[in-house]
Amino acid sequence: MKQITVISGKGGTGKTTILASLAALVKRAVLVDADVDAADLHLLLKPQVLRREPFVASQVAVIDPEKCDQCGKCAEACRFEAIRDLQVDPISCEGCGVCFHICPRGAILLKEVQSGEWFISQTRYGPMVHAKLGVAQENSGKLVTLVRREAQKIAREGGYPLILIDGPPGIGCPVIASLGGVDAVLVVTEPSLSGIHDLERVLAVSRHFQVPAWVCVNKWDINPGNTEKIETFCQREGCPVIGKVLFDPIVTKAMVMESTVVEYTGGIVAQEIKKMWTQLERLLGYTLDAKGALRGEQGLNL
Questions:
Q1: Integer Cα distance of 104 and 102 in angstroms
Q2: Which terminus of the chain is more exposed, N or C, with fewer CB under 10 A?
Q3: How far is it, in rounded angstroms, from Cα 272 to Cα 7?
Q4: CA dist., res. 47 & res. 124, Å (int)
Q5: Where are the alpha helices (DSSP H) in 209-249?
Q6: Domain 2-46+124-287 has CATH 3.40.50.300
Q7: Contact by Cβ (8 Å): 56, 137
Q8: How open is the CA angle 42-47-53, to the nearest 5 degrees?
Q9: Higher per-residue pLDDT: 138 or 300
Q10: Which pLDDT band holds residue 286 (cuts at 50, 70, 90)?
Q11: Cα(156)–Cα(273) distance, integer angstroms
Q12: Nearest Cα residue to 38 out of 143, 124, 125, 127
């Protein structure tokens, strides 16, 4: 079983659009939307939810007014200023438990709160595990780890040879959670100054965790000069550019029709993405037989 995460140093590079197209080409994979803060893969794949589960990963303090003698020690100790007028602000409360431990009357409890939901769904390309983190909730990295673990379980039980992970943008905790233990990352970037800067950061993260990285330059023809800079940088860093996708309004039209671009059109953009998938197959040593089983596995061919 292979795992590949598609990430980007910034939002809006086309990462999810490209991953959805790869899912259409693979046809037999478990899909993961690890962008739990702003999931959008479902907009293209229209999954049918088969299972819905709560995500509980945080606590909030609650004051029992019947036990409280209004000594104010909890408010004095709270470094987050979450307790005012002997009321706990659930948004400001970090659930650290200091107030719980110092209350002389035992009037404070730590109550578990639901931070979001996670789902197992079915798409036209196979099973998909995705999630939705609640507004102002934390522990996104923990939720990413949870959905990845469920995807691995589905892949093992169903004999799926590949897990495709739509990673979150940036370089924070959820990105790190989406990288751990994968075979490779595909970094989608764009030829802008911010795109180049964030590409450098995300490649540094993948290098730190010793995960092989390959690069796709989306909308490369918007600024050929910056694309050349990206190719030079990637060559120097030993991260092959395996895909260059043109800017084409047909991509937006496909999204409006709730379709991937490789399904919607056989044009040059679809052909470039197909070429990139062929490259990924070769680099991953990933080949399917006629029954959709993994065969000829050679490991990473770098």
A1: 6
A2: C
A3: 18
A4: 8
A5: 224-237
A6: yes
A7: no
A8: 90
A9: 138
A10: low
A11: 28
A12: 143
CATH 3.30.70.20 fits 58-114, yes or no: yes
Express each pLDDT in 91-111 by its tens digit: 899 899 999 999 999 999 999
User: Nearest to residue 14, comparing CAs of 192, 147, 181?
Assistant: 192
The answer to whether the beta carbons of residues 92 and 82 sit under 8 Å apart is yes
Positions of E strands within 124-261: 126-133, 162-169, 184-189, 213-218, 241-245
Per-residue pLDDT, averaged over 41-68, amounts to: 92
- How does DSSP classify residue 124? T
pLDDT for 170-179, tens place per residue? 888 889 999 9
The rounded Cα 297 to chain-centroid distance in angstroms is: 26
Domain extents in the chain: 2-46+124-287, 58-114
CA angle 78, 84, 90 (to 5 degrees): 75
pLDDT (tens digit per residue) in 149-177: 999 999 999 999 999 999 988 888 889 99
> Do residues 185 and 212 touch, judged by C-beta distance below 8 A?
yes
Would 2-46+124-287 and 58-114 be classified into the same CATH topology? Answer: no
Q: What is this structure's pTM?
A: 0.85
